Amino acid sequence: MKRSVSNALSLTVVTCIVLGVSLLLIAMVGSSIPSSLSSFIRGIVGSTYSIGEVLVRATPLMLAALGVSIGFRTGFINIGAEGQIYLGAIAITWLGMTFPSLPPILMIFFAILVGFLAGGVWSVIPGILKAKFGLSEIINTIMLNYIAINLVGILVRTSLKDPSYPYPMSPILPPASYFPMLLLPTRLHAGFLLALICAVLVYLLMFRSSTGFCMRAVGLNKRASMCSGISVKSHMVLSALLSGGLAGLAGVSEIAGLHHRLIEGISPSYGYLAIVVSLLGKNHPFWIILSSLGIAALQVGSMAMQRSSGVPTSIASIIMGLLVIMILARKQFFGYREV
């Protein structure tokens, strides 16, 4: 009872502080608070299209955050989801350009497969370096982000460039590689269903299987796991593979569901936001679904607020940073502990 009261009190305080700071920031930029809040809410739930945009933006966040959560649970601090998203996008682009005549079912299947493997292999590199040599995966995954982002920049100017278009981007991929649309006339596509399926699979793996138990045990105490006969290195590498693979699926989702071609800046920092989503979701698939929807709604609502009331979208970034700080700080100030 005491724990539940402390938890409820901490959430109430966090909500009040975040709301108060938000209103203060809106007032500081000289906008009307009622008008800004109204445009914010309308931007999220004001129309079918608005709701669809929230779900569209939540899709890559959810997939990448699920991957990040697996790494965090196993003690593999994956900061490289951004680069792994780009590798997944490269993989589906290569597949569509190399095998354009594949039937839709095979094309989608192989797109998901090669996207998962591309992101997973990219993540396994720092995973092996950590497991075998003890090198920091934080530094390695960050550096691999820059390599992946610039690799896309090179490819869309060379081997994957559309020769009929002056700007650096790939040709339009064949329609067989497109995800089905779910809610016309919105941009919501089947990638959202893929993200939900992945959330269920991650839950079953991490909390309902012996492999998941071993991975979580490695994350909690490597030495105790080793003494219990658990292979720390193999589970660390496995977590890196799964972590990067799910982020790679986020890149596949962006290409197959929205852009249908490879472009620079395919990810507006989804990989870094996924870390925030995973932290807010306590590295649990169910809460990650909710936190990804919340962050997506915050972003979509802030853009609507900027269009209607002139409030800069940078306020959303400030709020996200404040949320993470407050969620972490409430453990100290309110004695709250996660299970």
TrEMBL record:
Localization terms from the record: Cell membrane
A cellular component annotation (GO) from this entry: plasma membrane
Keywords: Cell membrane, Membrane, Transmembrane, Transmembrane helix
InterPro entries: ABC_transp_permease (IPR001851)
TM spans (from-to): 54-72, 84-102, 108-129, 141-160, 188-206, 236-256, 311-329
Domain of life, source organism: Bacteria
Keyword Heme attributed: no
Membrane topology: Multi-pass membrane protein
GO molecular function, one term: transmembrane transporter activity
Name recorded for this polypeptide: ABC transporter permease
Species name: Sphaerochaeta halotolerans
Source lineage: Bacteria, Pseudomonadati, Spirochaetota, Spirochaetia, Spirochaetales
